[in-house]
Automatic annotation (TrEMBL):
<feature type="domain" description="Peptidase M15A C-terminal">
    <location>
        <begin position="6"/>
        <end position="116"/>
    </location>
</feature>
<protein>
    <submittedName>
        <fullName>DUF882 domain-containing protein</fullName>
    </submittedName>
</protein>
<dbReference type="Pfam" id="PF08291">
    <property type="entry name" value="Peptidase_M15_3"/>
</dbReference>
<dbReference type="InterPro" id="IPR009045">
    <property type="entry name" value="Zn_M74/Hedgehog-like"/>
</dbReference>
<dbReference type="InterPro" id="IPR013230">
    <property type="entry name" value="Peptidase_M15A_C"/>
</dbReference>
Length: 124
């Protein structure tokens, strides 16, 4: 199922094989809509490299926060070929500042960036 022009629901499925529950599809769609804005800004494909949705057991297995945004498909761990995570995060910050992407959580890791749509500014 296509969520947006360039993102499918399958990309958000948990890495343990569990599909995004019906009640969280709207969250995954909102994340995908925001990632489309980033994709257009960067003019490069975005890979959901780690997680979109996570089950509670998978979240625990990977050391996720107990109230992780991934538990409700409200987040995505992303990478972009040719860009460092800090470059991706800076682009997201720019788009948030311009009011084009939703404010939320932004975490920079060695190989990916976490972005979520929680609505409040949280950085790590």
């Amino acid at each position: 199922m296509k969520l947006t022009q360039n993102f499918s629901l399958q990309e958000f499925n948990c890495k343990d094989g569990t599909q995004v529950p019906q009640k969280y599809i709207a969250n995954a769609t909102e994340v995908a809509q925001n990632l489309e804005i980033l994709r257009s800004f960067l003019d490069k494909p975005i890979l959901i490299s780690g997680s979109g949705y996570r089950t509670k057991s998978h979240n625990k297995k990977v050391g996720g926060a107990s109230k992780s945004q991934h538990l409700t498909a409200s987040a995505a761990d992303i990478s972009v070929t040719g860009l460092q995570p800090m470059q991706i995060a800076e682009a997201i910050e720019t788009l948030i500042d311009q009011g084009k992407m939703k404010q939320g959580g932004l975490g920079v890791y060695p190989t990916f960036v976490h972005y979520d749509i929680r609505g409040t500014k949280v950085r790590w």
